[in-house]
Amino acid sequence: MTETAPAAPAAPAPHAAPAWARDAICWQVYPLGFCGAPRHREDLTGETYGGADGENVVHRLRRLTGWLDHLVALGANVLLLNPIFDSVSHGYDTLEHRRIDPRLGDETDFDALVAGCRERGIRLVLDGVFNHISRLHPTARRAIAAGPGTEEGDRIRWSGTSPYGFEGNDDLVEVDLSDPVIQDRVVEIMSRWLERGADGWRLDAMYAAGAEAWASILERVRAAHPEAWILGEVIHGEYPAFAAASGADSITQYELWKAIWSSLRDANLFELAHALGRHQGFLEQFRESGAGALPLTFVGNHDTTRIASQLEDGRDLAAATALLALLPGVPAVYAGDEFGAAAVKEEREGGDDAIRPWFPGSPDEVVAAHEAADAGGESPRSLQLLAPEAAGRILEVHQRLLSLRRRERWLTTASVAVDESTLTNTWAQIVLTPTADAVEGGAEGGTGPAADGAAGERPSPLTLVLNLGDEALPAPGEVLEAVSGADMLDAVGPSAEGTVPAHGIAVVR
C-alpha cells in the first residue's frame, strides 16, 4: 500500500459501467479469516501440492451462507470477497486461480454460495490477485527454472537475476501482465468464474502493472460479460484517469479513507473538507467520462486498522458511519465494523491477523465470539469489539443510515460541498446535492417518506452535519436522522429534538 499509480495512458474505447453498480452497497469479507481457516496450508510438500482432487478439502466457505440474511438486513446488496482461490497462506500468494482454496472448500461450496446470493438478490464480487503469485505457482516455478530472457522466464518480472517480489516480498512473484500468454490466462480465469455465477472482480494491486496492461484484458472480458463490475485497487494518483485508461468501473478511494479517520481522530474537519473537495473533483471527472464510473468509499478494509481502533473517542464512530453511508460513491462496509470491531494492523509478519478474524456461525453469536479466547496455533484471531454491550446499537445505526441512503438513491452520484462559512475544527455542514444524471439515470429520490422529489424531478439537497464538540447544537434545518455517539456507545439517551448531538451527526433538509 505504498505504491503510486503510474501515469495513465490514453483511454481505451469508452464503456458503460453496469447499471446495477449505481445502487451497490458492499459488505466486504476476508473469507479465510472469517471462516476460521488455518493461516497456512499444511499440504504443500514435494513438487506437487494439494494432492488429488478433494484431498485436504474442508468445507468452511458455507459459513458465509449463514450471514447472507445479515448482509441484506444491514442494507447491503453486494458480497465483496477477498481471496478464495488456492493459495499458500493469506490468499494473495496464489497457487491456482481455477481452484477454490481447499481450506475453504471446493466448487460445490462456491455454487452453494452463488445460489444463496441469487435467492436474496445479492451480487457476488471476487478478488482477482493476478499481479503476483506464489513462488510455488507452476508459472513461477517454470519461469525461475528457465531464468530471465527466456520465453518462460519472461512471464514474470525480474530484478536482475532474481524474481521481482511484490512490494519487497520474495514469496510474491510479480507476473508480466503485458505478456500475451499471461493475458490469455487472466481473461480465461476471469471469464470462468463470471460464467459460474460471479458478478464482478476486485483487481488487487491494479496500480502495480498500470492501466495500459489491464486495458486490453478488461476489454476482452467485458466483450463477453458486459454486466461485470470491475473494481480496481489503486492507492494514490488520479483515480478517474486511471479508471478511464484501464477500463475499471470503480477505484478504491484511499485519499478519502485516510482523511475520514485522521480528521475525526485529530478533531480537524478542515482536513476532511479538503479531501471532500478532492472527492468532488474526482466525481466530476468520473461523470465527464460518461462511463458511469464511481469511486469505492470505505472506512476500513482487510489491509487497514479498524475504524473503531483508529479513533481516540469511540463516540466519533457515529460520524465515520454517517460519512460512509451517505457520501457519493459505492460504499463498502468491512465485515465486523457494523458491530464496532476493534483491531490494529501492525507492520510485521502476521500483522494483518487481528484485522482478519474468524466470525461465528451467525450474527447472534458475535458477542460470544468476542469473549472467546484465541485458539492459538494456525487458527485466525478471534473477533474483538470496541464495546460488546454496544454492538447491537452500532449495528442499528448502520442499518438506519444505510436505509436512508437506499431511500435517497441519488446520493450515489451526488455533488458534495462543505459550507466553508460554518466550518470549524469540530463542526462541518456537508451539502449533498442531486446531479442531473440522478434523474436522467433513474436514481430519483425514491418513494419512501424520507425521499423528496417525484419521478422526473430533482430531489432537494441534504446536509450531513458533523459535531465533534462536547455540546449539542441547533440543527440548521429539519432533522431527518440524528445519531448521538454517546447514546450509540453507552445508551445515555438521544439528544434534544432539533439538535446535532455532541460527538454525533444529523441529516437535515
Describe what this molecule looks like in 3D.
The protein has 509 residues and is of the alpha/beta class. It contains 16 helices and 21 strands. The protein has an 8-stranded parallel barrel with strand order 1-2-5-10-11-12-13-14, surrounded by 5 helices. A 5-stranded antiparallel beta sheet has the order 15-16-17-21-19. The protein has a two-stranded antiparallel ribbon with strand order 3-4. Helix 9 (254-266) runs antiparallel to helix 10 (269-289) and helix 12 (317-326) packs parallel to helix 14 (391-407). It is globular, with a radius of gyration of 23 Å. The two termini are 39 Å apart. The model is unreliable at 1-6 and 443-450 (pLDDT under 50).
Backbone CA Rg: 23 Å
Helical percentage: 25-40%
Largest sheet: 8 strands, parallel, barrel
Strand content: 15-25%
Query: Average pLDDT across residues?
Result: 92
- Residue windows where pLDDT falls under 50 for at least 5 positions: 1-6, 443-450
Which descriptor suits the 3D outline?
globular
- Give the number of helices: 16
Q: Strand pairing plus helix content: what structural class?
A: alpha/beta
Strand count: 21
Distance between the termini: 39 Å
Q: How is the largest sheet built, in terms of strand order?
A: 1-2-5-10-11-12-13-14
TL;DR of this structure?
The chain is 31% helix and 17% strand.
Architecture blueprint of SSEs:
Layout: E1 26-29, H1 31-34, H2 68-74, E2 78-81, E3 85-87, E4 94-100, H3 107-120, E5 123-128, E6 132-134, H4 138-146, E7 158-159, E8 162-163, E9 172-174, H5 180-195, E10 200-203, H6 206-209, H7 211-224, E11 229-232, H8 239-246, E12 250-252, H9 254-266, H10 269-289, E13 294-298, H11 307-310, H12 317-326, E14 330-334, H13 366-371, H14 391-407, E15 415-418, E16 427-433, H15 436-440, E17 462-467, E18 473-474, E19 479-484, H16 485-490, E20 499-500, E21 504-508
Parallel strand pairs: 1-2, 1-14, 2-5, 5-10, 10-11, 11-12, 12-13, 13-14
Antiparallel strand pairs: 3-4, 6-9, 7-8, 15-16, 16-17, 17-21, 18-20, 19-21
Helix pairs in contact: 5-7, 7-8, 8-10, 9-10, 12-14
